[in-house]
Amino acid sequence: MFLAGRWAAMVPPLWGCYPRAHGCTPARAHGSSPASPRLPALQGAGSCPGGARGRSAAPPQVPRSPAAPGSDTYKGWLFKWTNYLKGYQRRWFVLSNGLLSYYRTQAEMAHTCRGTINLSTAHIDTEDSCNIVLSNGGRTYHLKANSEVERQRWVTALELAKAKAIRMRNNQSDDSGDEEPASQSDKSELHGTLKTLSSKLEDLSTCNDLIAKHGAALQRSLSELENLKLPAESGEKIKAVNERATLFRITSNAMINACRDFLDLAETHSRKWQRALQYEREQRIRLEETIEQLAKQHNSLERACRGAPGTAEHLKPFVPTGSVQSSKGEASDEDEETEYFDAMEDAPAFITVTADPNEGHPEDWNLEDSVSRLGRVGGMKCKERRSERTRIPDKPNYSLNLWSIMKNCIGKELSKIPMPVNFNEPLSMLQRLTEDLEYHELLDKAVKCESSTEQMCFVAAFSVSSYSTTVHRTAKPFNPLLGETYELDRLEEFGFRSLCEQVSHHPPAAAHHVFSKRGWTLWQEITIASKFRGKYLSIMPLGAIHLEFHSSGNHYVWRKVTSTVHNIIVGKLWIDQSGEIEIVNHKSKDKCQLKFTPYSYFSRDVPRKVTGVVSDADGKAHYVMSGTWDEKMECSKIVHSSHGSTSSEGKQKTVYQTLSPKVLWKKYPLPENAENMYFFSDLALTLNEPEERVAPTDSRLRPDQRLMESGRWDEANVEKQRLEEKQRAVRRRREAEADYEGYIPLWFERKVDPVTGELICVYKGGYWEAKDKQDWSVCPDIF
């Protein structure tokens, strides 16, 4: 049900107990069915029991709920490792619906779950004859059974439950990326099913009555025949028939009794199910109304706070209002698993002081004095630049309530939320990845740097610049179809060519490769993990970004931060970036630690602030990075560092004496009328422009995306459904093949990265050669 499954996913900790609808119901205190197996008496928490002493100290036997045939339900006592002080402690474990939960006592099942682990992604291991180790991500359970036999029973039950949970998870996912929304037709179908069941039960009752009636009549007729004066041979035959009829009567009576019991039980449970279903519906409606009301109250309080007399200007969040000027949002609500500290308390770990140039510190240090005239990838006029469009059709003014769609999707993956194109922008995720190259000349400049720490400054500025396009872009890009590609060939104009391919659909993953003849190569495989949390949406890009400079061999690796979209229910949508980026040069061991500060009403810092320090392999700091992810990044050279005062948390701050800052990167202004063109930058306006000679799988050729860009949204929604259904059919045919071993990308291949040790998709070549020959015979028909 909605409350049991979706709402539980919102409550921290992430692996916390599910509500009672997930099987956390009290077991019977005494007795069990005759066929029910009993859990052997558990003894000490040290090791497997072996002697009489252990048996004498054993607690009383406790009944374990039997596992129905084909069921994954299992209950019983196990010892769980707690800590070195208390060692193993006896706990009551319940295995149900692919979840293993535990309690201190059986009585706790009614109200308090101590922890739950999801078996669909868990690893099950056995250390010795009695121990079981369950691990899932950062959580590990060390369990000890009473005996080797009992340990084997649990391992078998866990393995079966894990296999069933994996099958259920796979069945719920399909290649379309969208789940069917709960609609009025689903409710009608449920009522129809219940009505059909009731009708069948009535038919069964009628059949019972008829069998009893006709069986009695047959018995009477045979008795009358037996009393007639007939030859001896006929009498014997009639007697044999009478005996068979008697057996039929006995069997029929047994079946009638069983049917009557089933009918009574079904009628009783049918009423119970209907009451439970009605209760869950009422609770769901009440919960939706409560969430919406709380969001409106929160929004009203925010407006009242901002409008209160004497409120400092820095307390006011700059919510986008349709203008193209920069907008500032509120603090990012951290994920439920993350401990959050307000920006006012989480003070920076260092202080920057500008050095006096009269004290002998040179001001003409190596980095360029100001931001150079970076050549823009799209929209910038230059001699060899091809003519590109500078506008797209204005966004239609369609009114659609986002909350009406997303209220049923709390806790789900964003890629599985059924979303019409009304909440998209006319670009795919592959094109959004390509947008990271808008400030590619930062890397061209980094090639010329003699110092690796100086080069790190430009790489850090480039990593921050990729977020500047997201400041107003709260719409969702199209989920690429499996095998979809996108190329951006700017080898002649800007020296680079880029290729993206969707290499997985669940989870959604895209591989990206960029080669620049000006001295660098960038590659990445990004998997998007996203969760709708009710009031906000968390988007977590997973995967490393690699950048290598050809001449020096410097190899940089970093990962993206979390993006958060706020005011999903009510108010103006706005986006924030929060978290930390650690950029590592794996050749020189230089590091840059960048911190994206989440917005806070109570912070005096500039909203969207980014700070960081560039240090060498010995940990010596060389540069201080500062700025905002939506406007600019500056770099200050450190001439002296010292330890300052101790903060209230007991941490000693470092004071960096620096030269005047130099601007490394500054955001380009948005084009005119950008607010009516999805707030696209000059580059974004050109990304979906039709080009000749591209692969038939290129995002530019995707029909629903093209229809949306043209403003024909209704047709785009119909086309989107057609494409998704076509992809489902292809997936079913592919999986029906006997030798199918999973999807194999066309232009990328999976290899273990020698730097990070991760299995990633890297470019294997062949695309640009196929383009030169115009040989696209290997490309599937996905559109």
Automatic annotation (TrEMBL):
Main location: membrane
Gene Ontology biological process terms, A to Z: lipid transport
Any Pfam family hit: Oxysterol_BP
Region called Disordered, residue ranges: 29-70, 168-190, 310-335
GO cellular component, one term: perinuclear endoplasmic reticulum
Family: Belongs to the OSBP family.
UniProt protein name: Oxysterol-binding protein
